[in-house]
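Example 4.3 (complexes with small molecules)
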Amino acid sequence: MSVPFFDLKKQYQSLQAEIAPALEKFLPQQAFILGPTVESFEKEMASYCQAPFALGVSSGTDALLMALEALEIGPGDEVIVPAFTFYCTASVVTRRGATPIFVDVDLHDYNILPAAIEAAITSRTKAIIPVHLFGQIVQIDAIQKIAIKHSLPIIEDSAQGIGAEYKGKRAGSFGRFGAFSFFPTKNLGAFGDGGALTFASVHDQEHCKILRMHGSRIRYQHEEIGGCFRLDALQALVLEIKLRHLEKWQEKRRQNAAFYNQALQEIGDLILPVENPNCRHVYHQYVIRTTKREALKVHLTCLGIGSEVYYPIPVPHQKSMEYLGHRYGDFPHSEQLSEEVLALPIFPELEPSQLEETVKGIQSFFL
Ligand SMILES: *Cc1c(COP(=O)(O)O)cnc(C)c1O
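Answer. The structure with pyridoxal-5'-phosphate bound is encoded below.
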């Protein structure tokens, strides 16, 4: 039996009876851009995230970029980001002409270190982008304290954190902005690209609505630069249906993680993910660590068991970031993680036998 790393077909099969008729009703209208379908999803999205306002946008990357544009962040400005994250958390800063200031992450939960944030603040700092990596909320109490002390806005990169909770509050409800991705393999995935922003204030929501339409409030009058940052109505339709199932899927991910946590104890030098106090981890990824990562990955591949490395290169060490002049040794935790992490299959539709197969595959490697 093979264990794929993820299986989108299986989820679609379970939803076909709901989605197909909705599409049949939607398609004859040929109304693809914004409108009531997108607005309806935005209401549901805000409600799920416990945020006052939400907007559907073109991708998680664009959500981050729009938040930076809304804050008028540009040349001469600095934005603090973790060194260990998906590339675009930082590249959006560069794309605005500003400078990403990388800080290291915690070896314990892989999230940005609050103390390192505070140490990196200068008079040019204009925002902080903490990332709820792998589906667990960052140390938000400490980060909020720092943000308030220095009057800095927080943009939560919640692309991996939809539904993640700290003290019952969800990702996207802590910062001034929350950025979400509906990339097909995220916990809530569209039939293509898509994203959302959540907002603490209606002012920011209205501003981003204008940015989403080429900086235009009135047709062919452009007050700001903006861009083409709209969420397709078709995607909104699919996402609203899927959102109704999300809690069930989150719980399945958590059950799968609980199974691994139990079954993978004290094997070789494995380090298992931790769930911090007061947190609901939504396991966008279930990431283990071992110094024998490469060999383990090959072993699993030979057994037909999928696994992935998130992320093999810390962002400051990417070629495109060379201009910043960082060296190996600058971000020791991120560098160590990039050599040791391995994500196991965790998607909600995994069969118990597939979970067992994965565990057996790992056990047989360390025998
Ligand atoms: C997926 C992801 C994004 C980007 O989302 P897209 O929708 O692919 O643009 C941003 N940040 C993190 C941490 C992600 O995992």
